[in-house]
Amino acid sequence: MAASSEILGSSFLQQTSLLPSWNSPLFRRDEQSRLSLTPPPKQSRRRSCRAVRPPLAAVVIKERFVKVEREEKAVKFKVRAAVTVRRKNEDLGGAIANQVDALCDKLGRSVLMELVSTEMDPGTRKPRSSNEAELRGWFEKKDAKTDRVVYAAEFTVDSNFNEAGAITVLNRHQREFFLESIVVEGFACGPIHFPCNSWVQPSRLHPTKRIFFSNKPYLPSQTPAGLKELRQQELKELRGDGKGERKITDRIYDYDVYNDLGNPDKGIQFARPVLGGDKMPYPRRLRTGRPPTTTDKDAECRVEDPLPVYAPRDDQFEEGKVEMITAGARKAVLHNLLPLLVASISPESHDFKAFHEVDNLFKEGLRLKQSLQDQLFHKLPLVSKIQDLSEAKLRYDTPDIITKDKFAWLRDDEFARQTLAGINPVNIERLQAFPPISQLDPAIYGPPESAIREEHIIRHLDGLSVQQALEANKLFMLDYHDAYMPFLDRINAQDGRKAYGTRTIFFLSEQETLKPIAIELSLPPARVGDSRAKRVFTPPVDATSCWLWQLAKAHVCSNDAGVHQLVNHWLKTHACMEPFIVAAHRQLSAMHPIYKLLKPHMRYTLQVNALARQILISGGGIIESSFTPGPSGMEICAAVYRQNWRIDQETLPADLIKRQVISAVLNSIGAPLS
After folding, report:
1. Which of 286, 505, 567, 659 is 20 to 30 Å from 475 by CA-CA measure?
2. For residue 192, what are the CA distances in angstroms to 182, 187, 214?
């Protein structure tokens, strides 16, 4: 026994499940000093996700030598998989390529799949796996007309396999395909679902096998031993190595700065500063790895529309989404570009001469002379797909408020209503001190106090003093002074642009509606040390002041539209979310429960942002052409991000408290703030 303990280890003989305790009456010693073993009684086995047969064990123990032999004959059995693939809507070229793939599949270049267990094989110290099975039915179903086609695969596993936790896929076809889901049946635990929803690239482009996990979530610390290595391998592939230019077929998530908004190779007027870094902090974008421009090594070469811009393959639009966006994009492009083209090639002036010409955009559309129409439409073949162009006009959609009241946009109550119920209801704040104070450097921008005084607004406060109105939470402000002031000189230097820093004061009336009572327009000092040029406008009392008041409101609306689009929409909704989406793909496995919750909300955002950088916020793009800040727009956006953006203040409750709006609402209904 001493020799046997040295050879096998005493712990083995004491702890192995194959042998009973040495003190058991099953062991007995005969007169030749040999141990014999009485067979133990049969034990019941608990049902698991495997089919098993009791092992046969023979134990022979001799004096001074012990030999244990264990022969476990695992039962092999088959499981079947139903594999759902979503078909593309293909043109003639795609249909031919599909037939070629089907023929190659018939000749042996098929899709290969392999099941991976959640357990490790103690012999190989690798995850247990099935045989490599071919996806069957591709050739036979090559002419199927349905959107989704279900193929089959059959795997052979043994009784030690346990539960399938992952499946690998190798696409040996010539083209990609969209793998929607896989359901494996045949295990004792029931069907195992693998939600894939991913494009599988051909092995000639991406030779590594794709990994898909079952729909069972695991935290990193809870990941079964058989899946840990695959979990890390999948994340490593998604992170990439930070080198090279990304291809459209890639699915790599990495970070970069906004160095692709300008195109200095086209001229200095198209150069734009790099957003991101210490000089101009900004959220990171998805890295594309394109080479630098010729004239500026810090700027990345652009991919101009209509060429595709990189987004990870699984984050690109699906075909239905593409068709919907394309139809809207055609009309949007025409709405933005057609007036510009008309102005550029027509010698006539196309400025609005009266308000009825603005109304005609909604009623009659943009009427063109036949010669000018032919000249334009031959240059823009896509216009033939816009139905309303058949009548030589381009009609704009009528705003809902105009359909109800043609002159609603002129009235003060509608102007005030828009601050709460319009496209940008998240900038109005309760006025906490009077007069308002600027946070800009007074050494550069002059005295910080607003030019609005008590005498400007006292007659609009329903008999209250300014202090009483403040204490009653009845004064509110829309403040675009500090956001625009540092950029006004550059904005106003552009042809056809004029902007001011604006502050608007609103009073909450007894009818629980807001009304504007003062607007301040400001310009920066002409020289350092000078005071700012400021002028205050109040509700009109005569015809002259009426139109000055309307123009002041127009400047407020212009600033409001710029802040809405550049800050509240682009920055806070798109740009600030992009690094979180990239980080989620780099750090959270598809098995992570948080990733499963976030995935539907992250869908398409990277593709939308990539297209925005290509055609919307780029130098000379639609935002610069359509909004007052022009080329300064993205710098205004970056300045707001640096000074004001904090993730802990972006939730709705935190934002309402920050703007002191919630306290005013609670006070108006007599509820305590707690």
Report:
1. 567
2. 8, 8, 7
Token code pair at residue 152:
């089959």
Q: How many CA atoms lie within 13 A of 533 on its CB side?
A: 9
Q: In whole angstroms, what is the distance from residue 8 CA to residue 33 CA?
A: 20
Residue 519 DSSP class: E
Query: In this structure, which amino acid lies at residue 135?
Result: L
Q: Which residue has the tokens 């979990």?
A: 231
Q: Where are the alpha helices (DSSP H) in 179-284?
A: 225-239
Q: In Å, what is the CA distance from 121 to each residue of 158, 162, 478, 631? A: 12, 11, 67, 62
Q: Specify the pTM.
A: 0.82
Q: How many residues does the chain have?
A: 674
- 429-456 core/surface letters (b: 16 or more CB in 10 A; e: else): bbbeebbbebebeeeebbebebbbeeeb
Tens of pLDDT, residue by residue over 180-209, are 999 999 999 999 999 999 999 999 999 999
Residue pair 457/507 in contact (Cβ under 8 Å)? The answer is yes
Q: How far apart are CA 242 and CA 252, in angstroms?
A: 9
Find, among 79, 44, 98, 36, the residue nearest to 61 by Cα: 36
DSSP category for residue 513: -
Q: How does DSSP classify residue 566?
A: I
